[in-house]
Design goal:
rod-shaped
């Protein structure tokens, strides 16, 4: 056999058709990705709105306690203030971490979560024992300022 005759019998190489992901599948993945992204954005704003609503309610209750204290000097608002702060703490942190705290441990928790040291010092230190006293003399404005600052820090 002649080698040129053998070569003339060869055919051109044909490449197989390329494999594609397929239009319907890629469109489905794109739509699902978009839906997941929108869901995450919605969840973020829903959680942020819920926290801001809780903060607004807590600040409104704090304003009511502050008003009662200004109108009636014999009113010891520390008990109501302590209850409000516990409610805010329970809404933001686990029950296990907050419910059992009292005294110095409660003040330490407030300092850690608020990234401050005002609750170990006066007037914040009165939150530990003040609710159980019949009458107490303290700087109410400074205490309310500390509590507002703590609430805004915790509810971010």
């Amino acid at each position: 056999m002649d080698p040129s005759a053998i070569l003339s019998q060869l055919r051109d190489l044909h490449m197989p058709a390329s494999v594609s992901a397929g239009q319907p599948l890629s469109l489905l993945v794109t739509v699902l990705g978009f839906i997941i992204l929108l869901s995450l954005i919605g969840l973020y704003y829903w959680r942020r709105r819920r926290c801001s609503t809780a903060l607004e309610e807590a600040l409104q209750i704090l304003a009511e306690i502050e008003l009662k204290q200004k109108e009636n000097q014999s009113y010891n608002g520390l008990a109501d203030l302590s209850i409000l702060m516990r409610r805010v703490a329970l809404s933001r942190f686990s029950r296990k971490a907050v419910a059992c705290l009292h005294g110095e441990a409660w003040l330490d928790f407030l300092n850690k979560t608020g990234n401050t040291a005002v609750f170990i010092q006066s007037p914040g230190s009165y939150l530990a024992e003040g609710p159980y006293c019949s009458s107490i003399d303290l700087d109410w404005e400074a205490l309310f300022f500390c509590v507002k600052k703590w609430m805004k820090k915790v509810c971010v």
